[in-house]
Amino acid sequence: MRISVLSKEYLLISVTASEDVTSDPVAFAFAAPSVDPSVWTSGDWVGTQARILVGPGGAVTLTKGTWDVWLKITDSPEIPVRKVDQLVVY
């Protein structure tokens, strides 16, 4: 995905799971390529898509560059963490 540094848009990630996880807390992290995520920001669900508002005034504001997008779903007992996309902010 590509987004202007001036834009505020929802980033949507489709989630496929063997059970319904849409009531579980979901969080996103944005890290430089090949760097493990360290800061997590809460997202929410729209159907089976996890989403977060990215851009000025959104949940996360990113500088220009390339970012790995990570998704974490807090379930019990599992807490899966996956790199799900790459975001280019221009």
General description of the model:
By secondary structure, the chain is mainly β. The protein has a single domain (2-89), classed as Immunoglobulin-like (Sandwich), CATH 2.60.40. It contains no helices and 8 strands. The strands form 2 sheets. The protein has a 5-stranded mixed β-sheet, with no helix packed on it. The chain has a 3-stranded antiparallel β-sheet with strand order 2-6-5, with no helix packed on it. A hairpin with a 2-residue loop joins β5 (44-46) and β6 (49-54). The model has no long low-confidence stretch (mean pLDDT 98).
Features:
Immunoglobulin-like, five-stranded mixed β-sheet, 8 strands
- Quickly count the helices: 0
Give the strand order, joined by hyphens, for the main sheet.
1-8-7-3-4
SS-based structural class?
A: mainly beta
* Gap between N and C termini: 11 Å
Unreliable stretches, pLDDT < 50, 5 or more residues? none
Summarize the helix and strand pattern as letters: EEEEEEEE
What's a quick, concise take on this entry?
The protein is mainly β and 90 residues long. Helix content is 0%, strand content 48%.
Secondary-structure blueprint of this entry?
Layout lengths: L1 E2 L5 E6 L11 E6 L9 E2 L1 E3 L2 E6 L10 E9 L7 E9 L1
Parallel strand pairs: 1-8
Antiparallel strand pairs: 2-6, 3-4, 3-7, 5-6, 7-8
